[in-house]
UniProtKB/TrEMBL annotation:
One Pfam family here: ClpS
Protein name: ATP-dependent Clp protease adaptor protein ClpS
Matches recorded under InterPro entries: ClpS_core, Ribosomal_bL12_C/ClpS-like
Molecular function GO labels: peptidase activity
């Protein structure tokens, strides 16, 4: 996930909880990491398609992120 100047920290935390399925603590930690460092890993998946689905869902709410596979 990438930081932006549009979404509030409350909105990002809410979406990480309800769209990405993170716990309240993990959502808050991830939001703070994105805010302070500019990016953070949200999740890892066995299949690339699963990661792409989550990225599309988050993007539909205005969040920005990247998906990459391992080498």
């Amino acid at each position: 996930m990438l930081d932006d100047d549009v979404n509030t920290m409350v909105t990002v935390t809410y979406l990480l909880r309800h769209v990405a399925g993170l716990s309240p603590d993990d959502a808050a930690w991830t939001m703070l990491r994105v805010h302070e460092q500019g990016s953070a890993e949200v999740a890892r998946f066995a299949e690339l398609a699963e990661a792409e689905q989550l990225a599309v869902r988050l993007q539909s709410f205005g969040l920005h992120g990247l998906v990459w596979g391992s080498s």
